[in-house]
Amino acid sequence: VVGTALLQYRAICRAVNTKPVGWIEHILRRHTSFQTVIHVKVQHRDIHDDIQSLCVLLKHSTNLALLSLVDCELVDDDVQLMAYSVQELENLRIVDLSDNQKLGKSAAVYLMALATTNMAIRVVRLNGTAVLAHHIDALNTVLAARGSVLGQAP
After folding, report:
1. Is 92 within 8 Å of 119 (Cβ atoms)?
2. How crowded is residue 99: how many other Cβ atoms within 10 Å of its Cβ?
3. What does the pLDDT look like over 37-70, one tens digit per residue?
4. Which of 10, 67, 149, 153 could form an SS bridge with 127, CB 3.0 to 4.6 Å?
C-alpha cells in the first residue's frame, strides 16, 4: 500500500506542474491515499514557483501534523496561500518556516490568522526570518493561550 501511495503521490506531483489546479483537486479527491501523509519537509530548495501546486496538495493532506518549509525562498504572499490551504487541517501541530529570510510583517499577519483559525497548531518556527519582534510577540500570545510556543530563537 505504501508503494502504491508513493507512486500516486509522485504522479500527482508531476501532474501539478502540467495541469490546471482544478484537475489536480479532482485527482486528489479520487486518491485518498494522499490523505495519509503526516509530515511534509522541504529544505534548502526554492519552491516559490511551485507554491500554488504545493498548497493544493497540502489542502488534501488531512492527517498532516508537521509542515516544514525551511529555507525555501518563501515570500509573504506564499505564506498567505499556505495559511489558507492548511487552515482546516485538524491534525496540523507544527509549522516551521525558519530561514526564509524574505518573510516579514505580512507573513506574520497571515500566520496570526492561521493560528487563530486553526486551533490545532501548537508550534510556529520563524528562526532566521525578517518577522519583527512585536509581531512574534503577538503570535506567541495567541499560541501561549493554548499552552503552545513560538519556536523563535533567542
Report:
1. no
2. 19
3. 666 666 657 776 778 777 877 887 888 888 888 8
4. 153
